[in-house]
Amino acid sequence: MGDRLDTGRARHVAIIMDGNGRWAKKRALPRAIGHQRGVEAVRRLVRALEPMELECLTLYAFSSENWKRSEDEVDDLMNLMRKFIKSDLPEFIANDVKLKIIGDWQSLAPDIVAMLEDALAQTAKGKQTLAVALNYGGQHEIARAAAKAAAKGEVSVESIAAHLDTADLPPLDLLIRTSGEIRLSNFLLWQSAYAEMLFVDTLWPDFEPAHLKQALDDFARRERRYGGR
Ligand code: FPP
User: Fold this and answer.
1) Cβ contact 139:189 at 8 Å
2) What is the 208 CA–ligand 1 centroid distance (Å)?
3) How many Cβ atoms from other residues are within 10 Å of residue 96's Cβ?
4) Where do the domains of the chain lie?
């Protein structure tokens, strides 16, 4: 992931999709329904990607800390992932969306790993990247990258960056978190060094493509300095 070019237009946006549980609670519905509606919000966004001209959208779908949730909720999230890949893969291919997965996804259930490998292969030629963080933790990603850099004999900012899961993605321009919480929760820690941050009160299932469009328009209008003047 190289230096950000100040083109005014965001190339890479990442989202911490938070608030599915609260969305469901407000309606006295099971948390699983909140997550289902969360997937629908993901689908709406992916369908609206093309005209936004983003090169990459990275979504925090399952953190390495999410294993601490109840077994039922973890199962629900994994099943939603299975269903989402199965149902939406043809659309990704048709719409030139390239899937990428970051995090320790190879240690997920074997059927999910196989499904993801197939989806990665089938979408490899896509133009816009949808990066999904699965079993992802930022500190762990940095530690893994640093270990790889050390094994090659050079530990530097550049060599660590070159071994991050996101090494082939454009620099992160904007990080959005929904649901009013103001923290990073171990997401893209290294990549956020110069990213702009936007915290919105909207609960994830209520997040619409228009919200992202507005965030991109606001981003393009702001002057960015990268620590210089
Ligand atoms: C946060 O809501 C959301 C998650 C832990 C998972 C995000 C997952 C999805 C949107 C669905 C799966 C994604 C894909 C790409 C298929 P929360 O449960 O922490 O909400 P709360 O803080 O209100 O309880």
Assistant:
1) yes
2) 15
3) 13
4) 12-220
Q: Is there a catalytic annotation at residue 18?
A: yes
pTM over 0.90? The answer is: yes
Q: Does 168 participate in catalysis according to the annotation?
A: no
Each residue's pLDDT tens digit, 139-177: 999 999 999 999 999 999 999 999 999 999 999 999 999
Q: What is the pLDDT of residues 1-39, one digit of tens each?
A: 555 555 689 999 999 999 999 999 999 999 999 999 999
Q: Give nearest CA residue, ligand 1 atom 7.
A: 61
| Residue 22: both structure tokens together | 């609260």
Distance, CA of 206 to CA of 196 (rounded, Å): 22
Which of 15, 16, 20, 82 for a ligand 1 pocket mutation test, highest count of atoms within 8 Å of Cβ?
Answer: 20
| CATH 3.40.50.620 fits domain 12-220 | no
